[in-house]
Amino acid sequence: MNKGLPAWSGPLIVSAILLPIIGGFLLEGPALGLAVGALVTAILIFFAVRYAPRGAIRSAPRRDAERHVLVAVSRPVEGSEAVEKIAAAAGDEEGEILLLAPAETKFLDRWASDVRRAHAEAQRKLVISVASLAAADLDARARVGDEDIVQAVEDALRTFPATEVILATGSDSADRHGAAAARELERRLEAPFERLVLP
Q1: Strand order from edge to edge, sheet including 96-102
Q2: CATH code 3.30.530.20 for 68-197
Q3: Does residue 12 have a pLDDT over 70?
């Protein structure tokens, strides 16, 4: 059974939007009415973006019995323990590994549409991670994704049939974006998920 909003809530929400605007026009004229209208519109946009519905994230359909591991890297994969966990998920040398690094842009770079630095940093993470896996005789493909880790994983899974998703992050205090992404991926992913916390 779908438990949505009660029937009376629709008129109440519309009233809560319109009454301050009408009141502003009646009390002080167009100046206050337009200002209140702009404020209400900004609040509506904020809540619409913040609470956009986010459903389950599914992998592309599998066409074989091999393991396919998607490793999203908020931090470069280094160290034997992390490599061993990825190797175990891939079935040692038998499975397919796709490394994915988000191109995290700074505010000013995004404003200036300059993604070169973000792309270079993502590629640096991928080079280190591929080298760490290659040292353990593991082949991996690498790809730069969207600046949002969750969106990058969702985009990759449209074509990649992941049997497991691993997210390599720093600690909660050192990598807040990675920690938040891990919580969301754990909630939304249908494929098995593991978070690797790297030093």
Answers
A1: 141-145, 96-102, 68-73, 164-169, 193-197
A2: no
A3: yes
Residues near 70 by Cβ (< 8 Å), separated by ≥ 6?
A: 98, 100, 153, 156, 157, 160, 162, 164, 165, 166, 191
So where are the chain's domains? 9-50, 68-197
Going by C-alpha positions, the residue among 196, 58, 61 that lies closest to residue 133 is: 196
Backbone angles phi, psi at 178, to 5 degrees: -65, -40
From the centroid of its chain, how far is CA 162? Answer: 16
- CA 140 to CA 28: how far, in whole Å? 65
What was the pLDDT predicted at 6? 73
Residue showing tokens 């600690």: 171
pTM: 0.71
Query: Which residue type occupies 83?
Result: V
| In the predicted structure, residue 39 carries a pLDDT above the cut 60 | yes
Give the type of residue at 78: E
Residue 135 pLDDT class (50, 70, 90 cuts): very high
Share of the chain above pLDDT 90, in %: 49
Alpha helices by DSSP H, listed for 70-175, are 80-89, 107-111, 116-135, 149-156
